[in-house]
Amino acid sequence: MAIKDLQARQGNVNLTLDIVEKAAVREFEKFGKKGRVCNAKAQDETGSITITLWNDDVDAVNVGDKIQIENGWVSEWQGELQLGTGKFGKLTIVGKGEAKPVETAPPKQDISEEEIL
């Protein structure tokens, strides 16, 4: 199956995709339970689609990862297709992207009182 073949309200979707973008995480509360959600942009050779990541998947999936969606569900929001695992689907990370080094500021130099005056 490929992204170009997906349609709204389609179930039993099985795809392997590359994560190319990840949006900010949002927190919510529903029925007294707290949760976290964020959108990510995923692509294959035929196109791209928004993936909805819930709770544990929010931290597990990063830009550069290759993921596999099994038994996914396609929905539509404001005319745009979105893919998620729904109640019965599964998301598996099949390849981790290369971790980018964290940029740090250069160490501060100690300044003596004489240099200040």
Explain this structure to me?
- This protein has 117 residues and is mostly beta strands.
- It is built from two helices and seven strands; from the N terminus they run ββββαβββα.
- It has helices at 56-60, 113-116, and strands at 13-22, 26-30, 33-44, 47-54, 66-77, 80-84, 90-95.
- A hairpin with a 2-residue loop joins β2 and β3 (33-44).
- Residues 100-117 have low confidence and may be disordered.
Describe the structure concisely for a colleague.
Mean pLDDT is 87; it is low at 100-117. By secondary structure, the protein is mainly β.
Output mean pLDDT. Answer: 87
> In order across it, which strands form the biggest sheet?
1-3-4-6-5
Broad shape:
globular
**CATH 2nd-level architecture:** Beta Barrel
Q: In which range does the helix fraction lie?
A: under 10%
* Helix segment tally: 2
Q: Report the biggest beta sheet as strand number plus sense, adding barrel if it closes.
A: 5 strands, mixed, barrel
CATH superfamily: Nucleic acid-binding proteins
Proportion of beta-strand residues:
over 45%
What is the level 1 CATH name?
A: Mainly Beta
Low-confidence stretches: 100-117
Based on secondary structure, the structural category is mainly beta
Radius of gyration: 20 Å
What fold name stands as the CATH topology? OB fold (Dihydrolipoamide Acetyltransferase, E2P)
- Name the helix and strand elements from N-terminus to C-terminus, one letter apiece: EEEEHEEEH
Overall number of domains: 1
| Number of strand elements | 7
Q: Roughly how many Å apart are the termini?
A: 71 Å
Oligomeric organization of the protein chains: single chain
